[in-house]
Amino acid sequence: MPMTPLTAWGRLVRPLHEVVRPPFLDVAASVVTVPGAPLLARGLGRSYGDVCLNANGRLLVTDRLDRLQWLDLQAGRVRAEAGLSLDRLLRTIVPRGWFVPVTPGTKFVTLGGAVANDVHGKNHETAGSFGAHVDKIGLLRSTGESLTLSRDENADLFAATIGGLGLTGFIQWVEMRLAPIAAARLHTESLPIRDVDEFFRIAADSRDWPFTVAWVDCLARGRDLGRGLFMRGRWAETGGLDVHKPPRLGFAPELPGFVLNGVTMRAFNALYRRRPYAVGACTQHYDPFFYPLDALSNWNRLYGKRGFYQHQSVIPLPVARATMVRLLETTAAEGQGSFLAVLKLLGESRSGGVLSFPMPGATLALDFPDKGEATRRLLLRLAAIATAAGGRIYPAKDAVMTPEMFRSGYPDWRKVAASRDPAFGSDFWRRVTGDAR
């Protein structure tokens, strides 16, 4: 089979892969059980770094494995093939008064990808991560063994698969609970933040708002460090159950690298902070609240041909304020700031996933256009600050984490190593563990 170049959402590298897109689960099974080069399942490729890459190996792309197996509208439960996207699932369940209990910042992810990365959303403090709402997983091992995983059946393998980066075998289907909604709209408020301290004060006063997140101007310095906007929301009781529409703004252009510099980023941040209706209360559809970036297809192209990195770390609460200040000061001093700087609190992890990223603390996400070695050095400095504070880096967003940082942030990683299907591997796993497969 010819080798195909394929990249991740960050578009940093385009390694060659042997790509297979099976239309049915039984065809996928024939791929999984045939010996060959290291194998990795991949959904829609929205991971930023290299957890969805398997250079010179096989990629089993699951986007055609997207069928609903059953839907219980009375109990709010669904079982579907792992290639079903949140986009398609929401189109089915929203008009019937249901929503996914946890969603990341894009609806263009598959159920299998959401499980493998144990994604989290704006309601982690109240709802935990995605895996907390998954009851069963259908897993096929390369030996041909087909297993049902749950908290009661094959429990250790279930815990290794939640957040297990797709390394324990091929996730065939996912069974999960849904969340009831009375309308497809949320009551929202947007409040100005003067600095990092005010973020923590407003967050503490927002406990009765299930969805919270803040945008931060990461190029601000001095007394303005941490200024931005704090956004919070709760489901409305009225307003209809209309589903989201396709992306509104079409296909993003690929910008020249010189466009993204400190001057243009400062201008964008100032305009974003001061735009009309940036502050205040309103009722809005779920789509712009949960998925603002989905309005522009392939927005990752805005970072240019060289792509972009993302740093996302979570810092334990006792040292979160001081560490966030250090992370933002380091970023501002380098002048390589981000249009997309997101700050929020995370609560107790409830999924039981061994490699699950969330833990009680504050998480900061920053995007950086790839400007070569200077950007990598900055990413490593940020990762070192977070790790030294007892934090960890999010594998789904990472492209620079060292093995020492990985072991520090995920001390139980050997449990996943022991449960890993020997036929499965990824560029990320080889990078942070030294495992050749």
Q: How would you summarize the topology of this molecule?
A:
Elements: E1 4-5, E2 16-20, H1 25-32, E3 39-42, E4 58-61, E5 68-72, E6 77-81, H2 86-93, E7 98-99, H3 111-116, H4 124-127, E8 134-140, E9 146-149, H5 155-161, E10 170-177, E11 179-180, E12 185-193, H6 196-204, E13 211-216, E14 228-235, H7 262-274, E15 280-285, H8 286-290, E16 308-316, H9 317-334, E17 341-346, E18 361-369, H10 373-388, E19 392-393, H11 403-409, H12 413-419, H13 427-433
Parallel strand pairs: 2-4, 3-4
Antiparallel strand pairs: 1-2, 5-6, 6-10, 7-11, 8-9, 8-10, 12-14, 12-15, 13-14, 13-17, 16-18, 16-19, 17-18
Helix pairs in contact: 9-10
Organism: Rhodoplanes azumiensis
Protein name: FAD-dependent oxidoreductase
Keywords: FAD, Flavoprotein
What does this structure look like?
Helix 9 (317-334) runs antiparallel to helix 10 (373-388). The strands form four sheets. An eight-stranded antiparallel β-sheet has the order 15-12-14-13-17-18-16-19. Strands 5-6-10-8-9 form a five-stranded antiparallel β-sheet. A four-stranded mixed β-sheet has the order 1-2-4-3, with helices on one face. It has 437 residues and is α+β, with helices and mostly antiparallel strands. Strand 5 (68-72) and strand 6 (77-81) form a beta hairpin. It contains 13 helices and 19 strands. The protein is globular and about 60 Å long.
